[in-house]
Amino acid sequence: MLREVEFSAVFFKTSIQSFANSSILTFALGTNASTFEICDNSTIGTNTRLSITSAGNVGIGTTSPSAKLEVQTASSEEVTTGLLIHNNVGGTAAAGNGVGVVMGRAGGLYSSKIANVWTNSNPSYLQTNIAFYTMHNSYLAGSETEKMRLTSDGKVGIGTTSPGAKLDLSLIHISEPTRPY
């Protein structure tokens, strides 16, 4: 026999004291309407840090995420970091590697990728580049190939991974338009 049980809004509430600086950290887990929340105080609905809606959307910094993952930073008049994806490689041996975001179907099928790719044109540290990858004549995971790159010194390459000018177009092919007569 199934029995429906109703819980109060707060499932878990606690305070933890830090021995290092005697500060007290209070947080609460619970529901606010149809949203599960983690708050950094003892009251659900106040200072919410993470929300999961009944639709399965996850919000960090917002209580009403409109997508599967929505990250909202504090209001600011500057460029702020809302999401950090990193690869903990070190040294110039990491050149040619990086970290990216793949967009497509589950398992990487039919996907495109935007990545941070490091080069070591300076022997002391890595240079960052943004590379854009798409699939062509394939749908298999990992078959993306680089189509465009923006280098750390502001050069854009289309069809090349090492542009030599502000805009470097490789293998230019311009077709004559077909005339109707």
What can you see in these coordinates?
This protein has 181 residues and is an all-beta fold. The protein is built from no helices and twelve strands. A hairpin with an 8-residue loop joins strand 3 and strand 4 (48-52). It is elongated.
List the helices and strands and how they pair.
Elements: E1 10-17, E2 24-32, E3 35-39, E4 48-52, E5 58-60, E6 69-71, E7 98-103, E8 112-122, E9 125-134, E10 145-150, E11 156-158, E12 167-169
Parallel strand pairs: 5-6, 11-12
Antiparallel strand pairs: 1-2, 2-3, 3-4, 4-5, 7-8, 8-9, 9-10, 10-11
What would a concise description of this structure say?
This protein has strands at residues 10-17, 24-32, 35-39, 48-52, 58-60, 69-71, 98-103, 112-122, 125-134, 145-150, 156-158, 167-169. It is an all-beta fold and 181 residues long. It folds into two domains: 10-71, no CATH class; 92-167, no CATH class.
The pLDDT mean sits at 80
How many E-type strands? Answer: 12
What string gives the helices and strands in order? Answer: EEEEEEEEEEEE
Strand arrangement across the biggest beta sheet: 1-2-3-4-5-6
Shape estimate: elongated
Secondary structural class:
mainly beta
Provide the helix percentage.
under 10%
* Head-to-tail CA distance between termini: 80 Å
